[in-house]
Amino acid sequence: MGLKDKEETAKSQSDLIMEYFRKNPNRDIRHPEIVDWATAEWLARTRGKRLRDPDRAIRKLSQSGFLVKISKGVYRYDPELANKRELEDFSQAQKEMIMKRDGYKCVVCGKGRDSGVELQVDHIKPKDQGGKATIENGETLCAQHNFQKKNYRQTESGKRFFIRLYEASKAINDKQTQDFCSQILEVYEKNKVNGHIVWEK
Ligand SMILES: [Zn+2]
């Protein structure tokens, strides 16, 4: 089975799950209820294929903002929220405008498609922090830097902390603490993590 086929199948499995949630808006639905329904429905519609990993599909739908996680294993479809969420996504035309403005290059490393990287349009202020789908709030990132931005957010406060500690120890001439902070901050720099937070040595 080719990649395309896999994507198609995965897509329609999520669609099937969403179909059930859309039919039951604003109701807290437990995993077994949706899994049982989707498994039987998938089996019938595909004439015998098994639904693969519905739990994962539900989790992904929740992470993407289509479903609200109420508690462990309980999800809800809120049409109003889902609508709002869709409004916050960039349209294809906006994505094109943002990439054009950024010269079809990642704003962090400057690599473009000609360097073989995949370009993605990212919300500068993330959606879950109220970031809107405006051209000003968009930036072009390569897949690697988009991944890092999404996942290294937790390390930002760490870097800020060690910069503060570095400066405080420098002020009182505490060489040992200063050296300790330097070593940690050099690891950040060496790995190009959170480069937008500048450490002035
Ligand atoms: Zn990049």
Write the topology of this structure:
Elements: H1 3-23, E1 29-30, H2 31-45, H3 54-63, E2 68-71, E3 74-76, H4 79-87, H5 92-101, E4 119-123, E5 138-142, H6 143-151, H7 153-171, H8 175-190
Antiparallel strand pairs: 1-3, 2-3, 4-5
Helix pairs in contact: 1-2, 1-3, 7-8
Bound molecules: zinc ion.
Cα-to-Cα separation, first versus last residue: 54 Å
Radius of gyration: 22 Å
Q: What does the overall shape look like?
A: elongated
Major pleated sheet = 3 strands, antiparallel
Poorly predicted sequence stretches spanning 5 or more consecutive residues: 1-8
**Beta-strand fraction estimate:** 5-15%
What is the element string, with H for helices and E for strands? HEHHEEHHEEHHH
Give the strand order of the largest sheet, numbering strands 1, 2, ... along the chain.
1-3-2
Summing up helix and strand content along with how strands pair, one would put the structural category as mainly alpha
In total, the number of strands is 5
pLDDT averaged over residues: 88
- Which molecules are bound in this entry? zinc ion
Helical amount among residues, as a percent range?
A: 40-55%
What's the tally of helices? 8
